[in-house]
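Hey L., structure's done. Input below.
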Amino acid sequence: MKKSVRILAVVMAVLMVTLVLASCGKTLKGTYSAEVDIVVLKYTANYEFSGKNVTVTKVVNPLIGDAKTYTIEGTYEIIENDDDTMDIKFEFKTEDDHIKSGTFDFEEGEDYIKIGGIKYTKK
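Output:
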């Protein structure tokens, strides 16, 4: 009887640990950066990930005028789709014309990520 209770306790502990780890989901850590050059402007975007939080900083350099910096904090979630693709969903506390909440295509490599088709290299 005592042996059965011990075995049951071990099985339950293993099951609980498995469930806790499965519920954590995929997260990113570190800063990823990209420089995007569009005809009339160039901008640098940095995504700094820590746990489920993200800070996005974009420095916009228009063809004419001074550079402007935009920084917004929020949360993110990586969604694994049934067809083996992934999406990333951002929810920002505030939004502006340069940084918006939403769901985007996502890909992760060894030293980079792609968000909405733009490649960000790990710093």
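Residues 19-23 have pLDDT under 50 and may be disordered. The two ends are 57 Å apart (CA to CA).

-- N.
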